[in-house]
Amino acid sequence: MNQQAVRSAAIATFAVFAINGFVFASWAARIPAVTRILDLTAGEMGMLLLTIAAGSVVALPLAGSVVARIGTASTVRTGGFTAAFGGLIVAFALAQGSVTFTAVGLVFFGVGIGLWDVAQNIEGADVERHLGRTVMPQFHAGFSGGALIGALVGAGLSAINVSMSLHLAAIVVLVSTAMVLVPRWFLPESKAGASMVATGGGPAETAPKGRSAWTEKRTLLVGLVVLGAALTEGAANDWIAKATVDGLGATEAGGAIMFAVFVASMTLFRFFGGRFVDSYGRVPVLYFSLGTALAGLVIFVLAPNMLVAGLGAVFWGAGAAMGFPMGMSAAADDPARAAARVSVVSTIGYVAFLAGPPLLGFLGDHVTIRWALLAIGIAIVASILTVPAARPLAESEFESVER
Hints:
MFS transporter; mainly alpha; 403 residues; transmembrane; 0% strand; MFS; membrane; Growth Hormone, Chain: A; transmembrane helix
């Protein structure tokens, strides 16, 4: 394929990841404000956040089939417009102080984010394969960088008391414009999964059904690796700001800045992480990453002040950086089965990413949200135990993964 087309697709994929991160962080950074506007406890806010998870759980298992039918570009657009529609509903609901309409909007937001995420990861794996080097962490660095900007914007708007409704309305305009323009630069053979199949050497009609990957032992174990990493990242996205406000007495802006510190660290390590993977291998990098995440989490929770908590957030973000992108790469090792396996691993990861943090909110009602974060350590240890499943597949192992 024309290398200029591949480079253009890489830039477009990076941009789509970045916009996705910006949108998600714009919401996450202002969760304390939403909690205040709707007058909710941590447990009640956790229940509200479950509506995002519900929408994504519906969309994620279907996303691989949607990509195979309409292509990655159209799936990203569909997801983006659906998320934007959800954002409009949430903006209206917050202006009215309605918990019910906020929940409805977040369901649509979750559906959109789910479709968008699977499609961008499939496109990213395809671009990575054409480039012949590890770039998936850089795409996820785009997500983290977008999230960093979103967090800083959220902190700034919170500090000057800009309403959440106006904030969300502006994001809707941004997303809608980007969805029209950016995906047109995706790889053309992504359409109907053609590239995934063609690079695997098999005809399109032999492409596997998305649900078949749920019977594969390795795919499920890779999903468990991603589960711990996703819960680690998701818990920070949803709760590090509030844990800073409640546990350390910081302002809402201070909580958003702590979130920004976490995201900045994660972005930096994702941007350079591909070089470490190419030099030392996927499995050693995953062991190091998950161990660092566990150490950073403990430091943050036990920190006596903002400075030490910030140090913990740096380690936490660095450790959370590589698990999700390396899981996506592992799922896409065999290009002929990439769409189905990425869909499965994304589903497992996003259930943890979206459903786990709200459950921490319920626990936080009893022990405070800061101490509740320690529960993530159990999932991190489980992920460490399943890391060997993510080793790269040799070509001779394609289509022969144990079922």
